[in-house]
Amino acid sequence: xxPLIELRQVSFGYGAEPALESIDLHLHPGQFAALxxxxxxxxxxxxxxxxxxxxxxxxxxxxxxxxxNGQPNPHVGYVPQLETIDWNFPVTVxxxxxMGRIRRAAIWPWPSMAEKRxxxxxxxxxxxxHLAQRHIRDLSGGQRQRVFLARALIAEPDLLVLxxxxxxxxxxTAENVLHLLADLNRQGMTVLxxxxxxxxxxxxxxxxxxxxxxxxxxxxxxxxxxxxxxNETYRGDMMVIRQDGMLFVQQRPHSHTYHEVVPxxxxxxxxxxxxxxxxxxxx
Amino acid sequence: xxxxxxxxFEFEFFRNGTIVAVIVGGICGLIGVYIVxxxxxxxxxxxxxxxxxxxxxxxxxxxNFYLGAGLWGFAAAVMINQTVRRTKINADxxxxxxxxxxxxxxxxxxxxxxxxTQSFDxxxxxxxxxxxTQDLWVVAGVALLIIVAIFFVYKQLLFVTxxxxxxxxxxxxxxxxxxxxxxxxxxxxxxxxxILGVTLIAAALVIPAISAxxxxxxxxxxxxxxxxxxxxxxxxxxxxxxxxxIASGASIVLLQAGIFxxxxxxxxxxxxxxxxxxxxxL
Lengths: 283, 282
Known about the structure:
The complex is a heterodimer.
Chain A: E1 5-14, E2 17-27, E3 32-36, H1 43-51, E4 58-63, E5 66-67, E6 76-79, H2 93-99, H3 113-125, H4 141-153, E7 159-163, H5 171-186, E8 190-194, H6 198-204, E9 207-212, E10 214-219, H7 221-224, H8 227-234, E11 238-243, E12 246-251, H9 258-261, E13 271-274, E14 278-281
Parallel strand pairs in A: 3-8, 3-9, 6-7, 7-8
Antiparallel strand pairs in A: 1-2, 1-4, 4-5, 9-10, 11-12, 13-14
Chain B: H1 2-6, H2 12-37, H3 42-60, H4 65-86, H5 91-112, H6 121-125, H7 133-152, H8 154-162, H9 164-169, H10 174-196, H11 198-215, H12 219-244, H13 248-281
């Protein structure tokens, strides 16, 4: 099967600083992939390359086998980070959603009847049809995410790209958003998202790509979320707990030397530093 | 009473001036919405000064005023856009550098050729006496072109104003839209210069739009309200200018400032009322 998105030996840098090196990535139709990695790992840069907003310094980006390099990707629906949105901007839900039709829109300022029908169908599907005339500021976190998802869906994309869809929302809303994405994926939509919450990624995304300038590993959560790979990805001390068929990832508590925290906890009793940071004190 | 209303229209300069003030007020109100929402309120101030530099250059070089000043303003607006896009410099800094340098060229030329200093007073402070029938037709033509342009790129302009980066992802040619908007802005400023004056154009661009913003949360309503505020204050401002004998630009802008104050009061009262309603329901 031909990949929907294919990155071949893609490298990109901002000035002299490399952000991504030799990326080989395939995303097939119907896949649901989560891109994980620490801040500065190049996740958003990779998304921008897929969106066509950036041109690789080396390598090629293909969509449906066609070279994309640096042109807006017409097959994609993009949901940006909600934190980048100006919530005081005077637009209603309906106006935001209809922006997604811009590629196919008529030149008149008003939407066609067909566009309005399509918008209503998508809003109903996402259960926010009652909010169409609401100002975007007057929405909850979950509703806001659904509005921008609706804007992406009305573009009739083959691929949904989401930048941190769970950032800045509470745990329950994050769960709802990820369930919604899983539902859309089950209906055939290909999904690529960046996410910081590894436990949410493990629970919802069937395919994980670990990134830190280069692809460290990719595969199913149970294959990828192992300590060696996570330590290499995050350059930290990660801990993986498996319980009742579920995966939990946790960063090991920071190993300060005791002297850094409490210089002299028990006067007259020396503190010994052992095992690279773990502490024992003879009292 | 009717005589007070009709008397000024006996004078051709007032008829021409009032029509131009209404058109210019409306156009500045319309464009001001995009400027305010893009957070570029300072551009009107800067660009009008840049255009003043262009007007002086056009005079010295014996070019057509509208063509010389218009091209100069357009070039300055494009340079600001490109500087912001391609460097780490913020819009306010780019506007500050490019437009002030352009204005300085005008000032330098005026100080070098002192003989024509007097004729630029109208450009600086606005003067209804200076509006000829030819000016009227030029302003009406420019206004029509601006309205047609905004009509056909309405959706793209809204998307770019809301979120330029994402608009590009969705296939909007943002660079093209920015350039078109720079051309629209430069044209509106040239058309407004005679009636409002360089020093007051910025206010006429910003005040109707922020007043409208205070009164509505709807983009479409904001566009209509801002255009109306600009046009109506242009009309009434001309009367004030005639009867109180003050510069037309100043009377229009002072009137707009009054509308802004009123909008501020209405907005605060509404907010207060909705908070009280919320407390009642709780």
